[in-house]
Design brief:
The protein is built from seven helices and three strands, in the order ααααβββααα. The chain is mostly helical and 197 residues long. Strands 2-1-3 form a three-stranded antiparallel beta sheet. It starts with 22 loop residues before the first helix and ends with a helix.
């Protein structure tokens, strides 16, 4: 049997991102919601393995869409946790800063565009900064749910989760306030590492 997905640990405590994300909000988001995507993906992988062993039919459309949803949720949340830090905030430096200035005109312009993208995601989803492997450009991408509206072959550098489960306990329906708080806990060192890799 191959390895299954596991919930990654955080590099900070559940209370360490307060007041931007409360201990209660972060605990539920990580240990319940993210764990749910891990469990969902593992369950489907086990079902697929069992069906193949027993040569039984599977509803490919439903099963594979559900698998994509859960794996996407796991991967995006894993990126999200690593792009947060109790010592975050400020602005990027080095090559990432230069690339943002070149592709967006300035960090302030990038921040404005990224925030508008996050606030305007329809329903549940994500906003992401990606680097397009073909053109080398930095782009902003909206991801609906976890598994649609992606730019193929783009490497994700940073994400913000704008599903209500990410902020509702702290911000109620004020998504824009959550997105503004997000900038105070961004781990630019981790994002720079992804960019340079």
């Amino acid at each position: 049997m191959k390895n299954n997905y596991t919930l990654p640990g955080l590099h900070y405590g559940y209370s360490d991102l307060a007041p931007h994300i409360s201990e209660e909000q972060l605990t539920i988001h990580h240990s319940k919601h993210h764990q749910g995507y891990v469990d969902g993906a593992n369950k489907i992988l086990d079902q697929l393995e069992e069906a193949r062993k027993n040569n039984t039919e599977i509803d490919s459309k439903s099963v594979l869409k559900n698998l994509s949803f859960n794996i996407g949720g796991h991967i995006l949340h894993s990126l999200f946790w690593d792009n947060l830090s109790p010592n975050g905030g400020g602005e990027p430096a080095g090559k990432l800063k230069s690339a943002i200035d070149e592709d967006f005109g300035s960090f302030e312009r990038f921040k404005e565009e990224f925030s508008k993208s996050a606030v305007s995601v329809e329903g549940s989803g994500w906003s992401a900064l990606v680097v397009d492997k073909k053109s080398g450009r930095l782009l902003i991408m909206q991801i609906e749910k976890h598994n649609t509206n992606i730019y193929p072959e783009s490497k994700i550098l940073m994400v913000v989760d704008v599903w209500e489960h990410a902020y509702y306990l702290d911000y109620k329906n004020a998504r824009a306030e959550f997105v503004e708080a997000f900038w105070n806990i961004l781990n630019w060192g981790e994002i720079e590492k992804r960019f340079s890799a």
